[in-house]
Here is the input.
Amino acid sequence: MTAVTTRSEQTAPTADGYTVVKAKHPGRWLAAAVIVVIAGLLARSVMTNPNFGWDVVGLYLRDVSIGRGILVTLGLTAVSMAIGIVLGVVFAVMRLSVNPVVRSAAFAYVNFFRGTPVLVQLLFWFNLAALYPVITLGIPGVELDANQLITPMTAAILGLGLNQGAYMSEIVRAGILSVDHGQTEAAEALGITRMQTMRRVVLPQAMRVIIPPTGNETIGMLKTTALVSVISVPELLYSAQIIYARTFETVPLLIVASLWYLLITSILTIGQYYLERRFARGNQRNLPPTPLQQLKRFFATHDALSLKGTKK
Amino acid sequence: MTVTHGVEPMVKADAICKNFGSNQVLKGIDLHVQPGEVVCLIGPSGSGKSTFLRCINHLETVDGGRMWVNGKIVGYDLKGSKLYEQSHNDICRSRTEVGMVFQQFNLFPHMTVMENLIEAPRLVRKEKKATAMARAMSLLEKVGLAEKADAYPRQLSGGQQQRVAIARALCMEPQLMLFDEPTSALDPELVGEVLKVMKDLANSGMTMVVVTHEMHFARDVADRVVFMADGYVVEQGPAREVITNPQNERTKAFLASVLSEPAAA
Here is the structure.
């Protein structure tokens, strides 16, 4: 039907002579109005309160040491997640082993690293030298000085990576269990061994279940890296802390760090969103609309405001 | 029993028992299948047909009795008078002589039809890609799906998927084919195309053990029909004889209910 150019709540009569009156949604409009007012008040407060120090924020947003901190944060996130994913697959496969000792070992690992706070684990790794001043790994001739070996950076990677491995193993395990048992049976009947079946048949299909929560974990990891500031790894938060320890501009620098965290997690969220859509393909008949499509649909249905009138 | 002496049977089941917990599913099954023979297992659901079939290629371990396939005891190595339990990899190797087709097709959904076919030859027999692909292509032609080589299983109808599954099993060049209700998950109009492929296979001399509810297929294609109920072999004999003129009361009752079905539908 052609567009009506005047503001109208009624469509032109349909072919069979009826006039269709669209449903009104006063509740929706009220809720939206309340939220807009609250948001406006909040925005005014943020802009008028001088303690936010927006000029200082602007000054430090592109500071060189903040930039270096961002790189450390990104690097730490990537390395820790990589370790976490590898360990996760290994321990997930171990959890599903037929050997009860192997199974229990994997369970103990997951239980220990999930059951203690990651901050405590980081401090443990950082203070490893107090526990084992000389690391021999049980091999004769190997004598490593723990104080030199365990830098803040290695402690951070060990702490975050091992902790992440425990969480990832649960995600991978759920993914493996989601694959139909008939797949394993078909592979077995063809003479394919268990390890080959896992690698070629089960894991590729488990990815659909593994990928979305892994995206979540990556975003979580980005923020968790802020914890390693306590063992003085010069990541984003620690870089901000160093500056405000000197200038006492605490709030503006925390805002700088927060803005950067927010920006990076937002980018990761968008990436995750489209990654999930990709892996849902072929499995769902109708993909949920993207936010852009949702917005378009909102204005298409709530056309009381639209001067273009009704489509359809 | 229909043992022809002198020829080593392809399958020799000797008093096979199988329990699931306290539930005794197989209560001593004796069955011999000769090379080139087509045997259909029929019977009411829960009678143990599928379980017995799965015992033949060791997807289920037997709790009693011995299963011999192609002259070797399934799951064990016989040395002198001792039976050594086989390792998982040895079991896998011996399975390559036995192809299996499942009710739910169980094709690998993340691989194309061609990849489904050449996966096992490549992984298990370490074949060159070209060799495996050439054989796979000729098998796809046999099941009438050569043009679907690059399609994914999801893009195929149920009947086409099952024909691919048959070709996949044949690609390992097995000496024995097991079919576990191959047409039960199919829409009625797709059953025919799968049965035709199976019939061609039977005519080519393949040894087949088929669990099926398709009585016309059993009557026309099978050499022998075995009727199972409650974990026992109740009646067996030449296919046409058993189906058209059953002797046992249970067989009569079962066939009467199954054969009246098309009229009701």
Residues 38 and 208 of chain B are 5 Å apart (CA to CA).
